[in-house]
């Protein structure tokens, strides 16, 4: 057992590039414990268990990517560790990894935009690691039959947005999260003065999300993302379009089937359900120079047969939605579109309940400069084909 280690290593690869390992475990009782270690010429390392309690651990790769625990703790357990030689004398290894606790781990300089990933709390168990597939995350997950992730919080920060989640879980190929948020780095007030990026402003917050089961073998072997169902609860979406500022974004909005068929990755989801969603849309029209706000509450959506490969002649995407537009006008929408119809048409059935038409003035006046003085809508229904 190695207690309170103080290690500083510099590793040089064949390209003369250096990577660094630093482990200052003197302050917080870090340790390395190996149980029942054996070694032979054919099997250099065999151990029942290796336990590591990491604090102030830092690994910097030859490409300057940094993985660090900083001042926090990472409790790791490796079970059934085996390193042996094959018939050609090549070293192979395998083990089963448990991360017993996560405490504010940080990974920076990720991707082209130097994003930062932070993880906190929870544990990860039964990760099957093997030298044959260590370079493939898909293979690691596929071979980890009993993989589980419990209660992990995290944050992924780029120069543009911050993604944050709480209570992430994974078990029996079903993923879940207690809440999720996407928040732009630029505030909406700053965006109204001068937007930092070309797209519309978008902010999302959710309640509980669940998705699965996921067919890992199909994804790993055929690159097909196949999911049984996805359900999102209590989604709050805010979006803002400022037409006073220059906009070079793509104007053409494809219909659902066309959009799915245009994806590069293969996709097959039985259903997606959104429960109790609230949408707020802001727009400033250049003709009126006035802010218009459209709230949509109690939005519930069910989408079925979401796919873009192995299309059969009768395959269609189906969308059923209901909501209160302007928080008052109850509206239902029933949509279906064929995947194999090359004309790009879809069937829509729209119905509404009653509403005082003067309530539309909160939208009509700022967005089109028109006003309704009086009137009542009893109901509206329309079934039509659209392209």
Topology diagram in text:
Blueprint: E1 2-3, E2 6-12, E3 18-24, E4 31-35, E5 45-55, E6 57-60, E7 66-68, E8 73-85, E9 91-102, E10 105-110, E11 115-120, E12 123-130, H1 137-143, E13 148-157, E14 161-171, E15 174-177, E16 179-184, H2 188-193, E17 201-206, E18 209-214, H3 216-222, E19 224-233, E20 236-242, H4 256-261, E21 266-285, E22 290-307, E23 316-325, E24 329-338, E25 346-352, E26 355-356, H5 361-368, E27 376-377, E28 380-386
Parallel strand pairs: 19-21, 20-21
Antiparallel strand pairs: 1-4, 2-3, 3-6, 4-5, 5-8, 6-7, 7-10, 8-9, 9-12, 10-11, 11-13, 12-13, 13-14, 14-15, 14-16, 15-18, 16-17, 17-20, 18-19, 21-22, 22-23, 23-24, 24-25, 25-28, 26-27
The total beta strand count reads 28
Give the neighbour order of strands across the main sheet: 14-15-18-19-21-20-17-16
Q: Please outline the major beta sheet.
A: 8 strands, mixed, barrel
Helix content: under 10%
Alpha-beta content class: mainly beta
Q: How far is it from the N-terminal to the C-terminal residue, by CA? A: 70 Å
The shape is: elongated
Report the total helices.
5
Written description of the protein model:
There is one protein chain. Helix 1 packs antiparallel against helix 3. The radius of gyration is 27 Å and the shape is elongated. The protein has a domain of 227 residues. By secondary structure, the protein is mostly beta strands. Helix content is 9%, strand content 57%.
